[in-house]
Write a structure and sequence with these properties.
- By secondary structure, this protein is α/β, with parallel strands linked by helices.
- The protein contains 7 helices and 10 strands.
- The protein has a domain at 90-164.
- Strand 7, helix 6 (182-194) and strand 8 (198-202) form a beta-alpha-beta unit.
- The two termini are 26 Å apart.
- 31% of the residues are buried.
């Protein structure tokens, strides 16, 4: 019989605090351990610190105090090149999209694959399939500057998941899309999670949280609380 092995820890935070300049701490004494293949919603009122927490997970900024390890590397002591290599393993959907407006939808989504040196034929195959999935085939060669907010949101999501990252962080990924496309995007996240990607989605949507029974990382009063839905009988919930 194969010996049970504890799932690999993707993110570990110990006594983390963050403040900007000399202001008060936005988050205090955060303790968090995210296991490989887990799926969590990140919740809290506006201003609770969700974006700040995600930015530390993405290695965009370091904590004011405490320690953070990502993929087993303590980022407090990791140099710039090392952080850049770790970021290649992370997919991020930003609220402000951060697309390159002078490039086409296709080229924006293809960028992570080209950075990794993937063969162009495989790039074209993967990008075409994914843009079809998010219903943007007819906008493939349009520059993102000409597209709507909801269309930009779908491109940003496609770019974040195209290289099948080990960790996916999404800040309000369904906030700018129509009600009929939101479930399809969530299905994309769920399928990616089934392949082993660890997923954290920041959201204000009660419907999303209720429809998909995943644990919640809830920020309140600068602290982090973890809530587990009572109906979850195994990791992944009823939509796994």
């Amino acid at each position: 019989m194969e010996k049970y092995r504890e799932p690999e820890t993707i993110i570990e935070m110990q006594n983390v605090g963050i403040r900007y300049d000399q202001g008060p701490e936005i988050l205090s004494d955060i303790k968090l351990s995210l296991k490989k293949g887990s799926f969590h919603f990140l919740t809290g009122k506006s201003g609770a610190g969700k974006t700040s927490l995600l930015s530390m997970m993405y290695l965009q900024q370091k904590p004011s105090r405490g320690s953070i390890s990502v993929f087993g590397k303590n980022i407090n002591f990791t140099h710039r090149d090392g952080l850049a290599m770790l970021r290649r393993r992370i997919g991020v959907v930003f609220q402000d999209f951060r697309l390159l407006d002078h490039l086409s939808a296709f080229d924006n989504v293809a960028l992570p694959l080209r950075v990794c040196g993937m063969d162009e034929r495989e790039v074209r195959k993967r990008v075409t399939e994914l843009l079809s999935w998010v219903e943007l085939s007819r906008h493939m060669q349009d520059t993102t500057a000409t597209l709507s907010g909801g269309e930009k949101q779908r491109i940003a999501i496609a770019r974040a998941v195209i290289n099948r990252p080990e960790l996916l962080l999404a800040d309000e990924p369904t906030g700018n899309v129509d009600n009929d496309i939101a479930p399809k995007l969530m299905k994309l996240f769920v399928e990616l999670n089934k392949l082993g990607t660890t997923v954290v989605i920041a959201t204000h949507s009660d419907k999303l949280i209720n429809d998909f029974a995943y644990p919640r990382l809830h920020l309140q009063d600068r602290s982090l609380h973890i809530h587990y839905p009572s109906e979850i009988s195994r990791l992944g919930g009823r939509h796994a």
